[in-house]
Write a structure and sequence with these properties.
The protein is mostly helical. Helix content is about 60%, strand content about 10%. It is globular. A hairpin with a 3-residue loop joins strand 3 and strand 4. The strands form three sheets. It has a three-stranded antiparallel beta sheet with strand order 4-3-8, with no helix packed on it.
């Protein structure tokens, strides 16, 4: 019996596209998102304002608060939950909380009781603020103090906790190490022929080498950058794909993560650049002397703008995708009609398929631009003034 592959491919794509809806329908009630609905509205607009809102306005604010908290990091990893109110049960596992506050504090995030409890450590009390998801030192009752602008004035310790985002970064790192260590071993055992999962990843590795690294960096210098280019491509791609699963992670939508990746790219470009690279920045050949003084600061500023654009591009695209997707899903509950709800579901379904493409495309763009910057840094220029 022969089964056509096309229906199977469509079914697989459909299942992957529906995964984000599972995450929204059964939200990961972590230490940030576990607050009751009424508390979410009060935390966002204040108690007095919340009393004057209609039920529809409160429901709209609750959905916005859920979307906002879905994008935030958390101190525990909840896979799913069931039940409501006091009978709600969370299925997952706690993560270690590491704080520096007049000493070293190490305890389990289970002490926070999904954001509702106060954790005691060495005589100090700590609680997670629902508004920003950060840990503050409080009194034994977990009270927060605010200034006239509504900002929390409690002492905020240095937080080195293994949060959900950090845990996923470590997980992806281990996954990449195991995958490509196995790929390397299969080359040795099978005469440079990949087997298993390596058959899928080998063409991608070759593509990055032959179509990204060599054309943009050159055959003479590309090898010393290959390890970084491969790492950054698969790291961003895997994290983006995990962000489309019901795990509820949004790592590349975290500005600190994208800034770190851009900073590493900038440092590699800066410290591996040849003297010709800096010569064309500070004393551009073939240009009148007066113009050199004008162009030098502009070119120097350009070296900073390049990694900044890498940071913003990846961050903005991933955050926008998550917000639009969850907003479309929220419309199903807003319409609650046989016409509006299916239409919202269809639009969200199409966007989910598009997000799968965007997850790969953003990894490609980041890797391509990094290769362009490396190529410019090691390019051997011919001084035009020698021809004048």
């Amino acid at each position: 019996m022969v089964i056509s592959r096309k229906p199977l491919q469509f079914i697989f794509a459909a299942l992957v596209a529906v995964l984000p809806y599972i995450s929204f329908a059964n939200p990961a009630q972590d230490s940030v998102t576990s607050q009751p609905k009424t508390e979410a509205v009060v935390a966002t607009h204040g108690q007095e304002t919340a009393k004057n809102l209609t039920e529809e306005e409160k429901a709209d604010l609750e959905r916005k608060a859920h979307i906002k908290h879905h994008l935030m990091d958390s101190h525990d990893f909840t896979l799913f939950s069931y039940g409501e109110g006091e009978h709600q049960t969370h299925v997952g596992f706690p993560l270690p909380v590491i704080l520096i506050d007049n000493g070293f504090h190490l305890f389990s995030s289970s002490k926070f009781e999904h954001g509702e409890g106060v954790a005691e450590s060495n005589g100090n009390y700590y609680k997670i603020n629902h508004h920003d998801g950060l840990v503050y030192r409080t009194d034994a009752e977990g009270n927060f103090t605010e200034d006239s602008k509504g900002h929390v004035t409690n002492v905020k310790p240095l937080d080195f906790s293994i949060t959900k985002n950090v845990f996923m970064i470590l997980l992806v790192g281990v996954l990449m190490f195991l995958l490509f260590a196995a790929l390397g071993k299969s080359y040795k055992k099978n005469g440079s022929i990949a087997k298993g999962a390596g058959r899928f990843f080998e063409p991608i590795v070759l593509y990055i080498r032959d179509d990204i690294a060599i054309p943009n960096i050159g055959e003479k210098h590309y090898k010393k950058y290959m390890s970084f280019l491969l790492t950054i491509f698969f790291f961003i791609w895997f994290l983006n794909m995990f962000g489309l699963t019901p795990l509820g992670v949004n790592i590349t939508g975290n500005l600190a993560i994208t800034a770190s990746l851009a900073l590493i790219t900038y440092l590699i470009t800066t410290f591996t650049a040849k003297k010709d690279y800096w010569g064309h920045i500070f004393w551009m050949p073939g240009v009148p002397v007066l113009m050199k003084f004008v162009l030098a600061p502009i070119e120097l500023l350009g070296t900073i703008i390049k990694p900044f654009s890498l940071m913003i591009r990846l961050y903005a695209n991933m955050v926008a995708g998550h917000i639009v997707l969850m907003s479309l899903i929220a419309l199903m509950y807003t319409f609650n009609s046989p016409i509006g709800s299916p239409l919202s579901f269809f639009l969200a379904f199409v966007l989910s398929l598009l997000e799968i493409l965007v997850a790969l495309l953003q990894a490609y763009i980041f890797t391509m631009l990094a290769a362009l910057y490396f190529g410019a840094a090691v390019e051997e220029h011919h001084h035009e003034e020698a021809h004048h």
